[in-house]
Write a structure and sequence with these properties.
The complex is a heterodimer of chains A (115) and B (112). Chain A has 115 residues and is mainly β. Chain A is built from no helices and eleven strands. The termini of chain A are far apart. Chain B contains no helices and twelve strands. In chain B, strand 7 and strand 8 form a beta hairpin. The chains are: A mainly beta (115), B mainly beta (112). Chains A and B meet through strand 5, strand 9 and strand 10 of A and strand 5, strand 6 and strand 11 of B.
Chain lengths: 115, 112
């Protein structure tokens, strides 16, 4: 089975530019998560979708960040305009609830640098 | 609220040494508990999990036991290898929820 697929793996962009990160969850999974990892804050949950519907977006830093999930196999995280403090690794993850408990599987991350 | 506390690193060991990374949690109800591992330049991989009290998760020689009385889920390995060098994250998923709350991670460095 293919895991969670993220693109791009690495992105370097200038301050003020729009950044779009993409994610394809594991087929059959009904929950999708966007996490951000920085040295200062560790791993933070940005937003969580269930059955394509945003359930909890309280971790989205500010209005510059937006996320969509138009169908069960695709999600985007957009930053517009980007700022240097947005530099981080952004992870997409997915899971499928089951009797053995929720196990969340992570993609390899999108490493974003804003200069 | 829910939180996870891990011992600060880095933990530096020689090959074949015994490893313990402490993890304690705060949560209501009966969360599921996880250990994830992140190798340099890579994403997080599930290492092991436990879904109820007294469960023991194990994988690749690593073990952790869900201790509700001490709200702990310490990670252990009897003999570490250089290839175990990575950052280890303890996490919980509250009962009835799908999200994960992570600890800050503990870096493990194993020297030959």
């Amino acid at each position: 089975d293919a895991g969670v697929i993220q693109s791009p793996r690495h992105e370097v962009t200038e301050m003020g530019q729009e950044v779009t990160l993409r994610c394809k969850p594991i087929s059959g999974h009904n929950s999708l998560f966007w996490y951000r990892q920085t040295m200062m804050r560790g791993l933070e949950l940005l937003i969580y979708f269930n059955n394509n519907v945003p359930i909890d977006d309280s971790g989205m830093p500010e209005d510059r960040f937006s996320a969509k999930m138009p169908n069960a196999s695709f999600s985007t995280l957009k930053i517009q305009p980007s700022e240097p403090r947005d530099s981080a690794v952004y992870f997409c993850a997915s899971s499928s609830s089951g009797p053995s408990g929720n196990t969340i599987y992570f993609g390899e991350g999108s490493w974003l640098t804003v200069v | 609220g829910n939180s996870v506390t891990q011992m600060e690193g880095p933990v530096t060991l020689s090959e074949e040494a015994f490893l313990t990374i402490n993890c304690t949690y705060t949560a209501t109800g009966y969360p599921s508990l996880f250990w994830y591992v992140q190798y340099p330049g890579e994403g997080l991989q599930l290492l092991l999990k436990a879904t109820k009290a007294d469960d023991k998760g194990s994988n690749k020689g690593f073990e952790a036991t869900y201790r509700k009385e001490t709200t702990s889920f310490h990670l252990e390995k009897g003999s570490v290898q250089v290839s175990d060098s990575a950052v280890y994250f303890c996490a919980l998923s509250p009962s009835g929820y799908s999200t994960l709350t992570f600890g800050k991670g503990t870096m493990l460095l194993v020297s030959p």
